[in-house]
Amino acid sequence: MASLNVGSLGEYIREQRRHAQYSLRQLADAAGVSNPYLSQIERGLRKPSAEILQQIAKALRISAETLYVQAGILEEREEQGLELRAAILADPLVDERQKQVLLAVYESFLKENGVYHAAAGATADEPQTQPVDDENQKGRTTHADR
What we know:
Blueprint: H1 6-19, H2 24-31, H3 35-42, H4 50-60, H5 64-71, H6 82-90, H7 96-112
């Protein structure tokens, strides 16, 4: 997972806020965060959670994925599953450790189905060829067979 670049994230949020013609206080109210907290995010002093980023994105009417990419939570790429990853990261009912476990399980399913994750050294478009000689796997279609 990429490291969080809070300075450029804050600058990006400030730029989007100004583009939307919101004052700092207006955006803080719309996003449901305190004015000082949003100010600290914009100045790169605070590291917002995925849930807070989702609230800010909703208030700015931009995609949460855009902020996740700016924050380094998600890599910028076109692939299936991006929305699922974003939903997991934004879910307020799941703690950070559980989110990481869910993402790891999802990645293991992708690998099992013959799809590499970009962080594992390939893109989603590059299939992983797996022999289908296991007794339990006979007749099962893999990503490489499609």
